[in-house]
Amino acid sequence: MNKRYRLSQAAVSMIRYHFVFCPRYRRKIFLIPGVEERFKELVRQICQEKELDILAMECDKDHVHLFVEAWPQQSIPSIMKWIKGPTSHIIRNEFPQLSRVPSLWTRSYFVSTAGEVSSETIQRYVETQKTRYE
Predict the structure, then answer these.
(1) 134 domain-assigned
(2) pTM value?
(3) How many CB atoms sit inside 10 A of residue 104's CB?
(4) 132 lies in a domain?
(5) How confident is the model over 40-67, as pLDDT tens digits?
(6) Calpha distance 85→82 (Å, rounded)
(7) How many domains does the chain have?
């Protein structure tokens, strides 16, 4: 992955999140023809509107992996709300097999941060700050 920083008037950042989330009851919704393609299309639209960059996105039969780059003011819960809310509503309206499902996604999700350097490298850098210029 290339080192690409996001620049704004107030910050320079590289904030990357790896999300994993599932349909309620681990329903295998992505085995329904057209659901995966429509879901990915919706996520691309949402991310474009919210200025999130999709680094990777893949669906398995009963869960989603989404790797995005965000701005510092975009919170993790907001990102999940932006993606889960509209996709649930639209997919349940467009696919009759899912129309009776009260909500498509679980409330929970997994998220981890990712960057270009390891935690050990950052820790070593911070710990040696005082001794670097002596």
Answers:
(1) no
(2) 0.86
(3) 22
(4) no
(5) 999 999 999 999 999 999 999 999 999 9
(6) 6
(7) 1
